[in-house]
Amino acid sequence: MSQKPWDGRFSEQTDRAVEAFTSSIAVDRRLYTYDIDGSIAHSRTLARAGILTEKEADELVFGLETVRGEIESGTFEYSDSLEDIHMHIEDRLSTHVGGLAKKLHTARSRNDQVALDTRLYVRDQCGKIIGHLTGLCKAFTDLAEKYIDVVMPGYTHLQRAQPVLFSHHMMAYFEMFSRDAARFEDCLKRVDVLPLGSAALAGTTYPLDRAYTAELLGFSSVSDNSMDAVSDRDFILEFLSCAAICMTHLSRISEELVIWSSAEFAFVDLPDAFCTGSSIMPQKKNPDIPELVRGKAGRVFGSLTAMLTLMKSLPLAYNRDMQEDKPPLMDAVDTVRACLDIYIRMLPKIVVNQSITEAAAGRGYLNATDMADYLVEKGMPFREAHGVVGKAVAYALGEKKELHELALDELRFFSGLIEEDVFPALSVRKMIDRRTTHGGTSAKNVADAIARARKRFP
Ligand code: ARG
């Protein structure tokens, strides 16, 4: 049973069950390095305000660095009776600098302290995740470049629609993940605000130079309202929203890889080193990585939902409920980072079965739109052309043939505008190359997209 900082007001010791119930050390110990950075900056700010001497600040900084060393070397002891990482560090600091440690908490509350630690953590994690996303964007660009000319069916409703380049499909994911990176960059702007100096909720009577603290900790700005600074966690909500959207994108490529690696599709082979087998069926090779990533998306959505629910209707300012912000936040960080990392490792090893994807693009009437476009070029209004080709498809289905396998005479039965030159227009290559509007699947467009991607993430 340790002394509590609030002992003065209390006539009973805290119940052990209450200590265990209220303790957050198992989770917030991960914030130790930010807590120490924050306390170092606070010591310097107190000295600048004349509340500590420079010598006292130096001593505190030395003591705090010693504690950091102890934590990093694994000799630090944790206990529920000290509740959280803030009290652990202050308690240990007193064994190094004695009574001076008691001065560190001047002009500070755990409310602005924990807001600071969490912002520093989220700021770091945004940077790390942006790094992973950059790696992933490069991996998609590499894959697009490697299979630049491979044709595959493009789908809507998971029904074959029109041929596309596999590289175009990969660059679609590049776009999604590069927007995810931009979203985290944007989130970072609102995370990057110093809350320290807000104290418990109303600000402090001490003349703290908050701009100086912000400079020491590398923050771009200082919070403008003390009550907001200690009581909002919208920067976590925003971070988790970015994480949830990113997981949605990962779940989509995952679903596609699961489908494409099935015997029914056989579009891609996943690397053996990234699959597992079955304990009973010797022939099995399962796409565990995409499956798990697909599943883990739900976990990150859960974090976002938990956090929204946690903050909903909370009165200002700090409420203890908010201690529950860290488990969902940290779980989402770990999950997103692990998923991005494994994808960066797996993607370069995916093998595309070109002959199968190309054959698939040649069957299933994927050239019906192009045949309608052909008729439009010959002067027929599109709606009418759509009807003509629809009838031709119905006929071809009956004949068990593709449109381009019908004889010219058979095609001319549907429209006299059809001539010999229809056949090249119906070839897969022609269909791809004609889609030249900006953002379309022509080989030239995809090459340009890859060049833009290389510029963005060199
Ligand atoms: N462990 C607490 C949290 O994470 C620190 C702040 C505690 N503040 C308080 N007034 N009890 O929110």
Key structural traits:
mainly alpha, 5% strand, two-stranded parallel ribbon, Fumarase C, Chain B, domain 1, 19 helices, Ribonucleotide Reductase Protein R1, domain 1, Fumarase C, Chain A, domain 2, single chain, binds arginine, two-stranded antiparallel sheet, 458 residues
Bound heterogens, unique: arginine
- Could you say how many structural domains there are in total? 3
Which CATH-level-2 architecture of the largest domain?
Answer: Up-down Bundle
The CATH class of the largest domain is: Mainly Alpha
Walkthrough of the structure:
- With 458 residues, this protein is mainly alpha-helical.
- It folds into three domains: 13-106, Fumarase/aspartase (N-terminal domain) (Fumarase C, Chain B, domain 1), CATH 1.10.275; 111-205 and 220-353, Fumarase C, Chain A, domain 2, CATH 1.20.200; 360-441, Ribonucleotide Reductase Protein R1, domain 1, CATH 1.10.40.
- Helix content is 60%, strand content 5%.
- It has 19 helices and six strands.
- It has helices at 16-22, 25-28, 32-48, 54-73, 85-97, 110-146, 166-191, 210-217, 226-231, 234-260, 288-311, 326-346, 354-361, 368-377, 382-399, 408-412, 422-425, 428-433, 443-456, and strands spanning 151-156, 159-165, 193-194, 221-222, 268-269, 351-352.
- The strands form three sheets. Strands 1-2 form a two-stranded antiparallel sheet.
- α14 (368-377) packs across α15.
- The structure holds arginine (ARG).
- Arginine binds next to α6.
